[in-house]
Amino acid sequence: DISILKFQGNKRPFKQGLPFYNKEVFDGREVFTAGYPALGENPIWQFGTGNVTNSYVDGKDFLDTENTFVYQHSAQVDSGNSGGPLLIKENNQFYVIGINTWKAINRESTNYSVPIKYAVELINSKKQNSKTKNSKEQQIEKIKKMINEYEEELTCIEESKQRNKKKFEGIESLTKKKANKKKQKLMKERN
């Protein structure tokens, strides 16, 4: 439930987003959830608070990748909160530490968030892939341009050959005519 946004001319419609937290998170740390969960037909603003109850839950049960972990926390998460931020507050500033993703159904206040570092890695890989894709697209365009130039050059060469062929045929024809005239002249002289 996340997306990467690119704004035309790099002009953001907002002054600043929430910064990502790049320090280690420990058990017992106060955390917050924010969002508009689907409570009936009219989602309403919700701001929950709780604590990190396990800062290192093995992610292999949740994710399709090895060497990952998720945060377990007790801040309120309802249906529709997935994709929303898990926040901490430090020096009167909120920081995103994770993305709320799962809620344990048979347990009270047991919710899970993917650490923001994985989202950052994903974003960076998408940016890199985009650059590579753009680079590949540019290379393809360059190759297409070279092929077009080569085809134009071949067309010019072919046209030149046709013109030269006509010239050669004309010269050959004149040469044959002259040779025939000389031959006829020699034959007349012999007679």
Describe this structure in words.
This protein has a six-stranded antiparallel beta barrel with strand order 1-2-3-6-5-4. It is rod-shaped. It has one helix and six strands. With 191 residues, it is α+β, with helices and mostly antiparallel strands. Helices cover 39% and strands 24% of the residues. The mean pLDDT is 79. The termini are far apart. It has one helix at residues 116-190; strands at residues 30-35, 46-58, 69-73, 85-90, 93-103, 111-115.
Describe the structure in brief.
The protein is α+β, with helices and mostly antiparallel strands and 191 residues long.
Question: Uncertain runs with pLDDT below 50, 5 residues or more?
Answer: none
Distance between the termini: 106 Å
Instruction: Determine the fraction of residues in helical runs and give it as a percent range.
Output: 25-40%
Tally of alpha and pi helices: 1
Strand order of the largest sheet: 1-2-3-6-5-4
Q: Main β-sheet, in a few words? A: 6 strands, antiparallel, barrel
Order of SSEs? EEEEEEH
Q: Tell me the number of strands.
A: 6
The dominant shape is rod-shaped
Class by alpha and beta content: alpha+beta
Radius of gyration: 38 Å
User: Roughly what is the average pLDDT, rounded to an integer?
Assistant: 79
**Percent strand:** 15-25%
List the helices and strands and how they pair.
Elements: E1 30-35, E2 46-58, E3 69-73, E4 85-90, E5 93-103, E6 111-115, H1 116-190
Antiparallel strand pairs: 1-2, 1-4, 2-3, 3-6, 4-5, 5-6
